Amino acid sequence: MDLRSLRYFLAVVEHGGVTKGAAALYISQPSLSQTIRRLEAEAGVRLLDRSGPAAVPTTAGLEMAEVARRVLAELDNARERVHRVTNLSVGRLVVTTASTLSVYPLTPIVAALRRRHPGLEVHVRNAGTGPSVLDSIQRNTAEIGVLDLPLEDPRWAVRPLPREEVVLVTAAHGRDGESVARESLGAFDLGVATVDLDTSSELGALLAATASRARVRTAHRQLLWEVVAAGVVSTVMGRRSAGQVLPGAAVRPLEPPLWRTPGLVWRPGALSPAGEALLAAAADVFDRGVDE
Question: Which superkingdom, per the lineage (predicted)?
Answer without folding.
Answer: Bacteria
